[in-house]
Design a protein that fits this description.
Elements: H1 2-21, E1 43-47, E2 53-58, E3 62-67, E4 70-75, E5 80-88, H2 93-105, E6 111-121, E7 126-135, E8 139-146, E9 151-159, H3 165-185, E10 187-188
Antiparallel strand pairs: 1-2, 2-10, 3-4, 4-5, 5-9, 6-7, 7-8, 8-9
Length: 191
């Protein structure tokens, strides 16, 4: 009788181990990002007789002229807009620089880092700075460009969504190429 009572717990333990060992082990899955695809960037000339400049814009974007000194470039599928504001230089270059830099560094509270990319194009007399703002700031890219004599242009990128840097990163990188193209192709009109 002693042997039968000893075998019963061992059989029960064996059955318990057998069924628990047959269970599939689950492994945590890594976080994933959406696989977003955007149209190939192709550029067309943008010039308006009312403005003091011209440049190339992504053909998939829509340009909306607000008034003679400002306009917007819309990316509806990305829920993003580039805002441009032009100001003539009239012995106020220092003030224009300070305003452009202040606009960028106001986002430092939410930004993880602000990376400055100086821009110089002697051939077109375009000098400026592109700011790449890392983190959950309201804007992720800003720039200013000037010829230091007559013209000053400021550009800012805004998304119509709560700032979440990881979520907007693919769209931000796409539009950043367009903003760089604006700087590279920017030409001031001769007066």
């Amino acid at each position: 009788m002693y042997l039968n009572t000893v075998k019963l717990p061992f059989i029960g333990l064996f059955i318990l181990l057998f069924f628990s060992a047959c269970k599939e082990e689950s492994t945590p899955k890594p976080d994933a990002f959406l696989a977003l695809e955007y149209p190939k960037q192709e550029y067309i000339d943008y010039h308006n007789p009312k403005t003091e400049f011209s440049f190339e814009v992504n053909q998939w974007a829509t340009v909306k002229e607000m008034k003679s000194n400002s306009f917007e470039v819309h990316y509806p599928s990305m829920k993003a807009t580039l805002f441009f504001n032009y100001k003539p230089v009239e012995n106020n270059l220092d003030i224009l620089f300070k305003d452009a830099q202040k606009l960028t560094y106001e986002h430092f509270i939410k930004a993880d880092e602000i990376i400055e990319h100086p821009f110089i194009n002697d051939g077109n007399k375009v000098y400026g700075m592109l700011y790449n703002i890392q983190g959950d700031a309201a804007t992720n890219i800003q720039f200013y460009a000037t010829d230091s004599v007559k013209n000053f242009l400021v550009g800012s990128l805004y998304f119509y969504a709560k700032p979440n840097f990881d979520s907007i990163l693919p769209a931000k990188e796409y539009i950043e190429k367009d903003m760089r193209r604006v700087l590279e192709t920017l030409k001031w009109k001769e007066k």
